[in-house]
Design a protein that fits this description.
The complex is a heterodimer of chains A (about 300) and B (about 450). Chain A has a single domain, classed as Orthogonal Bundle (ABC transporter involved in vitamin B12 uptake, BtuC). Helix content of chain A is about 70%, strand content about 5%. A two-stranded antiparallel sheet of chain A has the order 1-2. Chain A is globular. Chain A has eleven helices and two strands. Chain B is α/β, with parallel strands linked by helices and about 450 residues long. Chain B is about 45% helix and about 20% strand. In chain B, strands 7-6-8-9-10-14-15 form a seven-stranded mixed beta sheet. Chain B has a five-stranded parallel beta sheet with strand order 2-1-3-4-5, sandwiched between helices. A three-stranded antiparallel beta sheet of chain B has the order 11-12-13, covered by helices on one side. In chain B, helix 4 links the parallel strand 3 and strand 4. The termini of chain B are far apart. Classes of the chains: A mainly alpha (about 300), B alpha/beta (about 450). At the A-B interface, helix 1, helix 4, strand 2, helix 9 and helix 10 of A face helix 2, strand 7, helix 8 and helix 9 of B.
Chain lengths: ~300, ~450
């Protein structure tokens, strides 16, 4: 039972970090961002490069964690303005389906961009994975780094919640989430809020990719699986809800963990069965806010 | 007279025009025939999760080989320029995007690009989808890589061929290696991807274990989805149910992620891990690959390839062009192109030196045999449309001096030891206890 809980929690932490950015971007910009998976992949690739440079400069092993963080910041600083200002803003107010198609086009283009920049050869950044040693829990041996992901998920989740609910900029963002038109008429620079929220979303995807990189071989295609699971998480939790993303990730993580341990053949089924059950009783997700009806 | 003269002049003028036209045609015809090309559609993963391990190395192999063919630089009997003097014109197509897309791309290759043959497909699902389409169009198709045995065991094709052995060989050889090396296997766990390749592989391995280790009990049977990336939970499940042996047919990025995540958790120390198709991750993983892992390459490929002049030539050709030694995917690509070359040239010889059509090509390749860098390829199954070949299994060890993983304790299995006979399906053959298996070590 403890093994199921630990496995579920570590998987949920990884999912939550990525899904958080997806739900934030939907909440503010009303975009179902399929390219979120590409930002995750860019974070992983950038982390591979940054950690490689840290190694070449013979920096202390602990600095690899800083390098991964800087990689995520670099991706957000470079890619977010390019995509939001350079492309997405021209489609605001258009049909949501069109925006999905635009982000899908971005997803395809960014897949090729990563290949052009990094090629098809896999990258390994496993050094950070061994930084925290191993921890024995019962018959299992876990890698300490897995628990770092749990801490990271708590940290980024808490930080986003605190920013939205305890800072002036966050409250302005909540006003835009509630009603962009009224917020604009009250003097809020909505474009700036969009830009900021999108940048944070990209950062969260990139940091998810960056901190996953030590556990995988970074190569073409890493962007695909994560985006599908993230969508399941935010649909269960309610599109645009931070708390929903956390609970959705936990539900998916635990359901999957139980299935893998008890009925492996039902691994994928368990995730989408949970999603179907939630949608049957709460069609807008567990934490969807009540919307004011516009007349 | 005047009329005669006019007619005569007109006739002479027409004769002159016809002569000029004939001369011009003759002048144009010779180079046109000399420049006749053989168009080959080459389909493999150029993007997505299978690109790095399979698609791109295979295409890199095709590029250097086609270049060598076109220069007439390959060793005999492959030393004619191009295919029988016709320069080879390759058209590379990305296999990524799913079976529906591949069906359309295949139609485009035949109808729009007018290719003479298609060589392609890594994904078993893609092979199952495109084979009936080529057959319906009566066009020549070689499946060069995919592993599922079902293609020729459940269907009969006239225009479709597979020039590599199917996956049954990999798992039978793995179990036979374990038995020959006295690997303890009272219990075994499995982790395979949840699609045609993984499902077929786990069945073949389980059935082989039932015959070779009748008292062995199977434990965990994990089936993560293709491209899962995160295996923490599956590794916990495998470690919770201790087993002597853990079998897997994972490949590509999935296999690399599994190794990177399982190794620090001690899985490789607690159980003998056996991989059916893992040679392709060795160059990239280097010292991250644990020692003592038993693995196959889906043929006698890469570090397990046999010593021969043809293999030496191929190894150097590929290594110099790509700065890495060839692993299974480029080997399978090269053996398909070598077979195609001989089939085209045989069909041309029977066709008065003219470019053969699909029927003539199919007749030439059916039941044929040829030497490849990985040994002899024989089209002996599936009515002469499915290849068999020898294979090899070895054990990993990181060599710090060479800074690479090497394979020790390599054991070779002749084709007739690890492939079913022509009249039996793989499943029936294994369940019957491998009747007719010959030359097993």
């Amino acid at each position: 039972m403890l093994t199921i809980l630990i496995d579920g929690l570590t998987y949920a932490s990884w999912l939550f970090i990525v899904a958080l950015g997806l739900t934030l971007v939907f909440g503010v910009l009303k975009i179902l961002n399929i390219a979120h998976g590409s930002f995750y992949a860019l974070g992983a690739y950038a982390a591979a490069s940054f950690v490689g440079w840290a190694g070449a400069m013979k920096l202390a092993p602990g600095f690899t964690l800083v390098a991964m963080l800087l990689a995520a910041v670099a991706v957000a600083a470079l890619i977010a303005p390019l995509t939001e200002r350079g492309l997405l803003r021209f489609f605001y107010g258009r049909d949501e389906v069109l925006l999905v198609l635009v982000t899908y086009a971005m997803f395809l283009m960014l897949e090729d961009v990563t290949k052009l920049v990094w090629g098809a050869t896999p990258y390994y950044v496993s050094e950070p994975y061994s930084l925290f040693g191993s921890i024995d829990v019962g018959t299992q041996t876990y890698v300490g780094y897995d628990f770092l992901l749990v801490a990271l998920a708590l940290l980024v989740g808490g930080a986003v919640w605190w920013w939205l609910n305890r800072t002036r900029q966050g409250k302005i963002t909540l006003a835009v989430i509630h009603n962009a038109e009224i917020a604009s008429s009250m003097g809020v620079n909505v474009s700036r809020v969009y830009m900021l929220a999108f940048s944070i979303g990209v950062f969260l995807a990139a940091i998810g990719g960056a901190f996953t990189a030590p556990m995988i071989s970074v190569q073409p295609g890493v962007s695909v699986g994560v985006i599908i699971l993230s969508f399941a998480v935010v649909i269960i939790g309610g599109l645009g809800s931070i708390e929903g993303a956390a609970v959705g990730a936990l539900i998916v993580g635990l359901a999957r963990s139980m299935a893998v341990h008890l009925a492996p053949v039902a691994e994928l089924f368990s995730i989408y069965m949970v999603m179907a059950v939630v949608l049957m009783f709460r069609p807008e997700g567990l934490f969807q806010r009540i919307k004011a009806r516009k007349i | 007279m005047a009329n005669f003269s006019i007619n005569s002049l007109a006739r002479r003028a027409r004769l002159g025009q016809l002569t000029a036209l004939a001369l011009a045609s003759a002048c144009l015809a010779s180079p046109a025939q000399a420049q006749e090309t053989f168009k080959v559609g080459i389909v493999s993963f150029l993007s997505g999760q299978a690109a790095e391990s399979f698609g791109i190395p295979a295409v890199n192999g095709a590029k250097v080989l086609v270049d060598a063919f076109n220069k007439g630089a390959a060793p005999a009997p492959y030393n004619k320029v191009g295919f029988g003097g016709m320069k080879i014109e390759p058209i590379y197509v990305d296999e990524n995007g799913g079976a529906t897309k591949q069906v359309q791309e295949l139609r485009n290759l035949y109808d729009r690009d007018k290719v003479d043959a298609v060589v392609g497909y890594v994904g078993s699902g893609d092979c199952l989808a495109v084979a009936p389409v080529a057959e319906e169009m009566k066009k020549f198709l070689i499946l060069y890589d995919c592993g599922t045995p079902r293609i020729f065991e459940d269907n009969k094709f006239n225009y479709v061929f597979r020039t590599a052995a199917h996956a049954t060989m990999d798992n039978v050889a793995l179990a036979r290696y374990m038995k020959a090396r006295n690997v303890k296997a009272e219990t075994f766990n499995m982790i395979n991807q949840d699609y045609a390749w993984g499902q077929d592989s786990k069945k073949d391995f389980s059935w082989s274990m039932e015959k070779l280790y009748p008292n062995a009990k199977s434990g965990e049977d994990q089936l993560p989805k293709f491209g899962a990336g995160q295996y923490g939970t599956e590794i916990s499940a495998l470690m919770a149910k201790q087993a002597d042996v853990t079998h897997s047919s994972l490949w590509g990025g999935d296999l690399q992620a599994f190794i990177l995540q399982a190794s620090p958790r001690g899985l490789f120390k607690r159980t003998q891990v056996v991989f059916s198709a893992a040679d392709h991750v060795l160059p990239a993983l280097g010292d991250k690959m644990p020692d003592g892992v038993i693995l196959g390459a889906r043929g006698a490929y890469g570090l397990m390839s046999p010593k021969s002049a043809l293999n030496d030539w191929w190894w150097d050709l590929y290594s110099k062009a790509n700065n890495v030694y060839p692993v299974q995917a480029p080997y399978r690509m090269v053996q398909s192109l070598l077979g195609l070359k001989l089939a085209v040239e045989k069909a041309m010889a029977a066709n008065g030196g003219k470019k053969p059509n699909a029927e003539q090509l199919a007749a030439a390749l059916s039941n044929s045999e040829w030497d490849s860098p990985a040994g002899r390829i024989r089209m002996s199954l599936g009515n002469g449309h499915q290849a068999v070949q020898e294979t090899a299994i070895g054990k990993t060890r990181y060599d710090a001096a060479q800074k690479m993983v090497v394979l020790d304790d390599i054991m070779r299995f002749p084709a007739d030891c690890v492939n079913p006979p022509a009249n039996m399906k793989s499943e029936d053959w294994i369940k019957a206890g491998f009747p007719g298996a010959k030359g097993c070590p």
